[in-house]
Amino acid sequence: MITSTARLARRAREGGYAVAAVNILDDLSLRAVVAAATERSSPVIVQVSVKTVRSIGVELLTTMVRLAAQDAPVPVALHLDHCPHRDVISQVVAAGWSSVLFDASDRDLATAERETAEVVAEAHAAGVDVESEIENIVGVEDDIGSDEAVHAYSVATLVEVATRTGVDLLAPQLGTAHGLYTRSPVLLPERVRELTGLTDLPIVLHGGTGLTDEAFRAFIEAGVSKINISTGLKLAYMKSAQAHTAKAEQTGRWDPPSMFRDISDAVQAEVAGHLDRFGSTGHAQDAAR
Ligand code: 13P
């Protein structure tokens, strides 16, 4: 059974930690993420980009994650990451995913609000949660997004739109960016405090890779309850593949299953570190309530 994303985020807030939302790329990374959560007895959100949805297909992804979640002794949610495309949203809503991030940050405010309300009506009718983004989080990831801040609003506007549209989680601009940081970001945990003073909606932190432990702590203390990690997992995956193939070149032993084991170990260790950092380790039972 896959579980509700909004419920995991609300439990995290009550427990003073954040639940990790980790972008998977294939079955290998999916199983490594679930293995890390199991090892740490932690809830986890498996996240998928539109690019990965297009490469694997909704049906196969849904089956893979359902089976992985069904066998796991920890709560696992399945979330569609940044999606501006209404047809893809409709497909995963029909497939019974836990939640979608409707990314309307490329639309003007009135259009973003109208379309977000439509997505909420469609998703809620199927029991699917909606994360909302109307300001853009800087950085291009899996072909989606912009390196420029295109839309920025006051916290009051963010909360008003979220309340009118009925979304379940809110992804504001918090000074972070997707991908690797090329210079130190100016982080905005105080913006989280302003938002949590106005709304009980779970607040989502994007662009987790590369932030310090202190930064994560400051954001969680301010009220962030879902933190997204993608680039860190891609790096762990590719660097371990690179090390493995370099060794194969020397030894002449070309054995894909042993490379899969190395990749899986590297991804599992990367994710387990984040679960410890976000404080969700040991919270599988209370998150499942
Ligand atoms: P990073 O790629 O910086 O970890 O960000 C992930 C993210 O926010 C996915 O939505």
From TrEMBL:
Tree of life domain: Bacteria
InterPro entries for this protein: Aldolase_TIM (IPR013785), Class_II_FBP_aldolase (IPR050246), FBA_II (IPR000771)
Pfam families: F_bP_aldolase (PF01116)
Cofactor(s) demanded: Zn(2+)
Name the record gives this protein: Class II fructose-bisphosphate aldolase
Gene source species: Actinotalea lenta
Taxonomic placement: Bacteria, Bacillati, Actinomycetota, Actinomycetes, Micrococcales
